[in-house]
Amino acid sequence: MPIDLQMQPWHAAPRPPTQTSVWVTEALAGENAAPPVPLQGDAAADICIVGGGFTAFWTALRLLEQAPSLSIAIVEAGLCGQGASGRNSGAIGHWWGRLPTLLRLLGKDDALRVLRASVDVLDDVRGFVAAHGIDCDLRLETSVWSTTYPSQAGAWLPMFKAAEAAGVAPPHRPLSAEDMRVLFGEAPYYQGVAEDNALRVQPAKLLRALRRLALQRGVRVHEASPVGRITGEPAHVRVRTEHGSVRAGKVLLAANAWMAHLPEIRPFVAVTSSDLVVTAPIPELLKQRGLLQRPGGVNSRMMLNYGSLTPAGRVYLGRGGGSIAWGNRMGPAFDFSARMTAEVEQDFRYLYPELRDVPIAAAWSGPIDRSPTGLPWFARMAADPRVHYAVGFSGHGMGATALGGRVLASQLLEREDTWTELGALLARARSGWYPPEPIRFGAAHAIRRAVARRDEALHRGRTPSRLDARLAAMAMSSLPDRLRFAPAPQLDPQPGETQP
């Protein structure tokens, strides 16, 4: 039976600036871009990419490096960068925190090969940014993986033990109590490990720069063109929008959580939100209150917090594991949720007591496509191998999409090289599944409530109830990572970016 995929309806309702990604607003204000060019009429391309984020543009640019004559069309529902690529924390992470999982699933040699690829891609991104003169606030910073409740144990210990067993050393150094006091003052940070060369960018600026490069190299970019349906036909695959279609020899689905409802993907991905708050630029106030040197990073809560300072002096804090999608379909809460914003602001006041009088300037949300292992995979649709996809970035997509761009380029060109071998290893590492609805939704909410009660008990120095402890044990760094009823390895906490 020919493939026939129905995509989620696109909701393009405008939101006020206080409920919109500041990174996207800044990036759009700094460019003189032409108005969006919606897809009109029937067009043809060698490869059509659905989605205009990092996966799309890294793949398109890597394809053209290897095959400059390719005809590539990118079809995006909104503006490129308005999705996960422009809503995340800007931290470009690696998979050191996934080492225990990689070792269990792949064995030592292949696990270390995947790990090294995830580290090497950071230099790959840095080199690309430098070579093309991209202004995206790229910087190397100290990032701390911390505990922010007195009774929390070091969530990083499994990574250190796995690294010792594999004969490798993580790029993290333990921090003493005095180190923590110097870095965080009187704020509630108790233990931690530091990574001194963590990579951060302004994500929307980087994405829009990749878009400009792609346009210069002949990629056709159709924004404001929501895809409604993708059908397989004898000579090509047709990607249909309201006012046009693209006939392509191959199609890459690169829409992350927005395609997690598709039948082939839905059992292996759970969609939850990441929610973020940010202040206005306050560099002088930060200087006065001794906060300019405070490092960013993540803590060890089950619904972990992540955040940092921007070069302009904004302070931002996010949290994973917020809203939960029924059937992996997103509603308005995945763009902005007043309830989740209030909860993250409460976290902000706890973690930045020095800024208790500083108002929140903006807040937004975004969906995360979480896999049971926290690792992405790159595959072809079983019903039609001409349709490729990348999914399961699990809130750590900044580095993974750059790596994925190389894997997908080789996969689309049907090459057998180190990148397709890496893609095969990630396919082997895919493990576990999520239950169907309504079990998934009901269990997810029950576990999320238990996690919240457990965190609150730890916050107040109390022992969580046995029931809450048991339910919360099904979660690690965020709720849906543990909500699976098929055999799967335990997920290790990940010291990296949590992004929509």
Largest sheet: 9 strands, mixed
**Total beta strand runs:** 18
The percentage of residues in β strands lies in: 15-25%
User: Structural class, from helix and strand content?
Assistant: alpha+beta
Specify the number of helices: 13
Which outline best applies?
globular
Mind telling me the CATH superfamily name of the largest domain?
FAD/NAD(P)-binding domain
CATH architecture of the largest domain: 3-Layer(bba) Sandwich
* Low-confidence runs: 476-500
Helical fraction equals 25-40%
| Arithmetic mean of pLDDT | 92
- Count of domain modules: 3
Give the terminus-to-terminus CA distance: 34 Å
CATH third-level topology of the largest domain: FAD/NAD(P)-binding domain
Radius of gyration: 22 Å
Q: Supply the CATH class of the largest domain.
A: Alpha Beta
List the helices and strands and how they pair.
Layout: E1 4-6, H1 22-29, E2 41-50, H2 54-66, E3 72-75, E4 91-92, H3 99-106, H4 108-131, E5 139-147, H5 157-166, E6 173-175, H6 177-184, E7 191-200, H7 203-216, E8 220-222, E9 227-232, E10 237-241, E11 244-253, E12 270-278, H8 283-288, E13 296-298, E14 305-309, E15 315-324, H9 338-351, E16 362-370, E17 377-381, E18 384-391, H10 397-412, H11 418-428, H12 439-459, H13 466-472
Parallel strand pairs: 2-3, 2-11, 3-8, 5-13, 11-18
Antiparallel strand pairs: 1-9, 4-7, 5-7, 6-7, 9-10, 10-11, 12-15, 12-16, 13-14, 14-15, 17-18
Helix pairs in contact: 1-7, 2-7, 2-10, 3-4, 4-10, 10-11, 12-13
Question: What does this protein structure show overall?
Answer:
This protein has 500 residues and is α+β, with helices and mostly antiparallel strands. The chain has three domains: 206 residues, FAD/NAD(P)-binding domain (3-Layer(bba) Sandwich), CATH 3.50.50.60; 159 residues, D-Amino Acid Oxidase, Chain A, domain 2 (2-Layer Sandwich); 44 residues. 32% of the residues lie in helices and 23% in strands. The strands form two sheets. Strands 1, 2, 3, 8, 9, 10, 11, 17 and 18 form a nine-stranded mixed beta sheet that branches. Strand 2, helix 2 and strand 3 form a beta-alpha-beta unit. The longest helix has 24 residues.
